[in-house]
Amino acid sequence: GEDVEQSLFLSVREGDSSVINCTYTDSSSTYLYWYKQEPGAGLQLLTYIFSNMDMKQDQRLTVLLNKKDKHLSLRIADTQTGDSAIYFCAVSRGNYGQNFVFGPGTRLSVLP
Amino acid sequence: DVKVTQSSRYLVKRTGEKVFLECVQDMDHENMFWYRQDPGLGLRLIYFSYDVKMKEKGDIPEGYSVSREKKERFSLILESASTNQTSMYLCASRGYQGDTGELFFGEGSRLTVL
Question: In this complex, do A102 and B94 lie within 8 Å of one another by their Cβ atoms?
């Protein structure tokens, strides 16, 4: 089955850029997502990218997709303390059923 | 604003007790899911439902059952709670409409089994 991998921890200084990486195994994944989970809360969709795109930019967020290497990254520019959270990479082959696979999550710590 | 509501944010139960976790969504979504979240393991799918009275096992269904009597409500049942079921439980829903296919999550229910 599909496997999604992420490093578990990342620390950056406030104002620096953060880059969170994700690799996946199923090349037929058509939707790729980044979710954010703040302490004690559920997951909220941060951004997403379709598999026919290479890059998507949304304010401080940049998503890069390398389909050949099955690699997805999330870059947060000018990282703030409010960005401290767990970031989950997730992939899906479509919007039907349960074919939604999450990575283990990367805990981002932003140091002042 | 779309909403998935989980009935209990925090529960403490004793081993052997029956536990009900309720989830309600107001988006008229067909698909609803129960995940459990443990540190370092990410989210693991317990059960999902694609229609009223329909259910499918996920990756870790053992020790759990579910009920979907109405479209908006999906319940997770632990018939006899055990300490290894101490975890954060997340409910989610997803519709067939729209172009993102995203899951909408509730705030989570943190269950402690003593």
Answer: no
With CA atoms as reference, the chain B residue closest to A93 would be B101
Closest C-alpha among B32, B15, B26, B12 to residue B75: B32
Q: Is A30 exposed, middle or buried (0-12, 13-18, 19+ CB in 10 A)?
A: middle
In tens, the pLDDT along B21-49 reads 999 999 898 899 999 999 878 899 999 99
Nearest CB to B105; choose among A43, A48, A104: A43
pLDDT digits (tens, 9 = 90+) for B68-79: 999 999 999 999
Q: Residue B76 corresponds to which tokens in the numbers above? A: 């997770």
Distance CA A8, CA B39 (A): 9
CB A97 within 8 A of CB B31: yes
Q: Which of A29, A46, A102 to mutate to test the interface with B (most CBs of B within 10 A)?
A: A102
Contact call for residues B47 and B59 (beta carbons, < 8 A) = no
Placement of tokens 């140091």 in the chain: A111
Q: B97: nearest CA in chain A?
A: A95
Q: How far apart are CA B60 and CA A111, in angstroms?
A: 37
Portion of chain A with pLDDT greater than 70, in percent: 95
Which of A33, A40, A97 has its CB closest to that of B50?
A: A97
Q: Give the span between the Cα atoms of B89 and B98, in whole angstroms.
A: 26
Query: How far is it between the farthest Cα atoms of chain A?
Result: 42
